[in-house]
Design goal:
The structure holds two protein chains of two kinds. Chain A contains one helix and eight strands. By secondary structure, chain A is mostly beta strands. Chain A has one domain. Chain B has a domain of 95 residues: Thiolase/Chalcone synthase (Peroxisomal Thiolase, Chain A, domain 1). Helix content of chain B is 30%, strand content 16%. Chain B has eleven helices and eleven strands. In chain B, the strands form three sheets. Chain B has a five-stranded mixed beta sheet, sandwiched between helices. In chain B, strands 8-11-10-9 form a four-stranded mixed beta sheet, sandwiched between helices. A two-stranded antiparallel sheet of chain B has the order 5-6. In chain B, strand 10 and strand 11 form a beta hairpin. The longest helix of chain B is centred in the first third of the chain and has 16 residues. Classes of the chains: A mainly beta, B alpha/beta.
Chain lengths: 142, 384
């Protein structure tokens, strides 16, 4: 182990207002649940949430709760933040493969940039960033 | 029946600079449009079709071109759209124009066109460099592609710009791969010099029917084949190398492969027939990816392919000969893509100065990239 650990942001960030379709996902994050949609007809996982199943085109999507565990698919370490609102620099945007079979964009926390390895086991860690904004970050699995 | 062929008969770049003081996007559009029409030996009154950058219908009104055909495709795909419109008899002379100035003022943030607004992406601090880095990382994991190989791409393209008097970074080199690796890290594995710059400028092209070609001032350049691959909206979903659609033929990491196959088939050409590759270069790795996707080397071999001088101006596959978005210009979303086609036209006309690829007859131009979930391909030739 070496270096400073990556940490969550803690100021007002740019983010979009949830829609009718996405609100259950964000409500879940605020409650410490990582929710995703699965189709009741064909079982296809729809992430981000949808009105109609992207696979079978039927409208029978059901919210499930992920165990929040997976592996690291890809990552970067950003030293030049997109806006000054991202005060905690560097930060590490990543794509995680969840065990249930879908990918999420997130940021890694609780690890130094030089210790990140491809395929490493990760688990979700929820943070209230600012105001009503809660985000699902991922850390090395314990 | 008139001759159904259409050709690019006029091109123009306005001056490009990090900042063009005192100008606006709208002023640059007029300058670019008149410049390209002058290059073609045509006038505004000859134009009966328009593809604009953002608001084409306003442009038709403001240039007083109505009634005119209106197109809508983005980036390099606007060129085959214009050709199709002319060949289908929908218009005789199509003006394609785009410009940006005064739109990037908050320099504490990255450029506005690089920032996603989607709720599942924006709060994690992504922007184009990070999106494309997530793609590059997968290639490094799968194939062992090295930062030095990415740096070789950036040094090669920046050295082209170093020799291009019209480039924003003219005379700012020469660069060695070590210089790229020594620049500060932006989004690992991309150093500052692995990334496009931001700048201001405008550009335009004129596409006209063969009926008018005897009148035009310059040598026509033909679109021999073209297509575009899309996986979905840019910057809303994870920029995943392995994103696949239900046909399962190509993953997002190979986006543009389907388009290139179709363009080459239509043109009746092979990869060996291409003299110059005016590839879109938002980030160094994207060149390695496109060389693979377009079939110039095998999957995973793009890193070694760029190492041995293949892609230099004197090599077998010279790429991005004006200096691209890293050194020539990167103004707004659309101009920088259209400029790949403009450079292809300049090469085929023999107007590339000391960066001329001798005897260039076929150019491949591209736009987009896997980080943005789309890639467009246009094959240009001196003969229809």
């Amino acid at each position: 182990m070496s270096g400073t650990l990556l940490a969550p942001q803690h100021t007002a960030l740019p983010y979009a207002t949830p829609t009718r379709i996405s609100a259950p996902f964000w409500d879940g994050v605020a409650l410490g649940e990582l929710r995703y949609q699965a189709c009741t007809f064909c079982a296809f996982i729809n992430v981000p949430p949808a009105d109609v199943c992207r696979e079978c085109q039927l409208t029978g999507l059901r919210w499930e709760v992920s165990a929040g565990r997976g592996s690291l698919y890809s990552w970067t370490v950003v030293y030049r933040p997109v806006t000054p609102a991202f005060e905690v620099v560097p930060y590490a945007p990543a794509i995680v493969d969840l065990d249930e079979g879908f990918q999420l964009v997130t940021c890694l926390v609780g690890i130094a940039p030089e210790d990140i390895t491809p395929g490493m086991a990760v688990e979700v860690e929820f943070h209230r960033v600012h105001g009503d904004l809660h985000l699902p970050y991922f850390r090395p699995a314990g | 029946m008139s001759d159904p062929r259409a050709a690019i008969v006029g091109v123009h770049n306005t001056p490009q600079a990090r900042r063009l003081e005192g100008t606006t996007s709208r002023k640059l559009i007029s300058e670019a449009a008149l410049g390209a029409l002058d290059d073609a030996g045509l006038a505004l009154a000859d134009v009966d079709g328009v593809i604009g950058d953002i608001d084409t219908s306003s442009l038709i009104y403001d240039l007083r071109l109505g009634p005119a055909w209106q197109g809508g495709r983005f980036g390099v795909s606007a060129v085959p759209e214009a050709v199709s419109a002319v060949e289908a008899g929908e218009a005789d002379v199509v003006l394609i124009v785009a410009a940006a100035a005064g739109t990037y003022n908050d320099r504490a943030s990255t450029a506005p066109w690089t920032r996603p607004e989607n709720e599942f992406v924006a709060p994690f601090g992504l922007f184009t460099a990070a999106e494309f880095a997530l793609i590059a990382r997968r290639h490094m994991i799968e194939y062992g592609t090295k930062p030095e190989q990415l740096a070789t791409v950036a040094a090669t393209i920046r050295n082209n710009g170093h020799h291009n008097p019209d480039a924003v970074y003219f005379g700012r080199g020469p660069f060695k791969p070590e210089d790229i690796l020594a620049s500060r890290m932006v989004a690992d594995p991309f150093h500052l010099l692995d990334c496009a710059m931001t700048s201001e400028g405008g550009c335009a092209l004129v596409v006209a029917s063969a009926d008018r070609i005897p009148d035009v001032a310059t040598r026509p350049v033909y679109v021999l084949g073209a297509s575009a691959d899309y996986f979905g909206p840019a910057y809303r979903h994870p920029p995943s190398w392995d994103l696949a659609g239900r046909r399962g033929d190509h993953v997002n990491g190979q986006v543009g492969a389907r388009a290139a196959e179709r363009a080459f088939r239509r043109a009746g050409l092979s990869r060996r027939d291409v003299d110059v590759l005016e590839l879109y270069d938002p980030f160094s790795f994207e060149i390695i990816r496109q060389l693979e996707a377009f079939g110039f080397c095998n999957p995973g071999e793009g890193g070694p392919f760029v190492e041995d001088g293949h892609i230099a101006i004197t090599g077998s596959h010279p790429v991005t000969t004006d200096g691209g978005t890293m050194s020539f210009s990167h103004a707004g979303a659309s101009p920088q893509m259209l400029q790949r086609v403009i450079r292809g036209v300049q090469q085929l006309r023999g107007q590339a100065g000391q960066l001329q690829v001798p005897g260039a007859r076929v150019a491949l131009c591209s736009g987009g990239g896997a980080g943005a979930l789309f890639t467009s391909v246009v094959l240009l030739g001196t003969e229809a």
